[in-house]
Amino acid sequence: MNSRFTLQQVHELALQALISSGGGAQQSAVVAQSIAEAEAQGIRNVGLAYLPTYCAHLRCGKVDGHALARREVTAPSILQVDANHGFAHTAFMSALPEFMFMVRTQGIALMTIRNSYSAGVLGWFIHRFVEHGLVSLAFSNASAMMAPVGGSKPVFGTNPWGFGVPQEGADAIVADMSSTATARVNVIAAARAGGPIPAGWAIDLDGRPTTDPQAALAGTMAPAAGHKGYALALLVDVLVAGLGSANWSFEASSLLDDSGGPPGVGQCFIAIDPARCAPGFAQRVARLAQAILEQEGARLPGMGRAEHAAYATTYGIEVPDDLVAELRALTHPG
After folding, report:
1. What CATH topology corresponds to 68-180+223-301?
2. Is 1-60+303-334 a domain of CATH 2.60.120.200?
3. CA nearest to 139, candidates 184, 92, 98, 171
4. What is the mean pLDDT of residues 310-332?
5. How far, in Å, CA of 196 to CA of 230, rounded?
6. How much is the average pLDDT of 14-25?
7. Is 254 helix (H, G, I), strand (E, B) or coil?
């Protein structure tokens, strides 16, 4: 059986669970917003299904629910943020006004966040930029769960990356994807359901492709498109941990269990004011999008999530009752 929730009810449930688990009200409100937006877009594995992990990590100290981020301007267009082992979302929002000023005055700026926690849906951050008409690139590393091509030992996380491009008269184009063939939470979900995973998602302990989710969890994730995904994961780590002084993926504690201390991962964002580059940018992008969509069956990145969000905003979402019971229990720990 399922229960129907409005997005506001999702936000309230997530907020109560986070605060009950030790999160500060201000910090928890931003994370709860990201969870509600993930649910709106149909990304449950990093929405309500990931909320118990957020709460567990608040309780065990992997993430500090009261952390206040520190900011340092190292150049007119470079802002470096120390999340102090708090949530990535709250560190980002605390720095966003200053970063936006940099982008507007310099035309382009870079922000790194270190000593951070899971970014969840990277598109959440990208949407903060496209709302202001900015072109953006976003990167986040994670604890190691992917081996380099030819190897069998995890070195890189799923290391998602994405971009946002505003266009006139339509939703912005927002792409958000992992460097692995899929997110590890999808393998975990398959293991819980007792079904196989698609070929190409993971390799086992011996470095062989597997469709067994248990063998996959014992082994490593496979890179997206082979050596191409591996190269992207490497680039993400260089931008996030190299430029931002966050932990490399292989240095970070697990984001999936309670072992180890704070993961100390990070994020990197590059934002560009297109008005400083090309007048009429948004109109020209709209013409490009039209050329794509004129082809029958063609889609733009992010269209499915946007359509899902539009429906969820009006009609809400359905949540399995067993998950609802688990989440409600988090609001009254004892």
Report:
1. Ribosomal Protein S8; Chain: A, domain 1 (3.30.1370)
2. no
3. 92
4. 96
5. 24
6. 98
7. coil
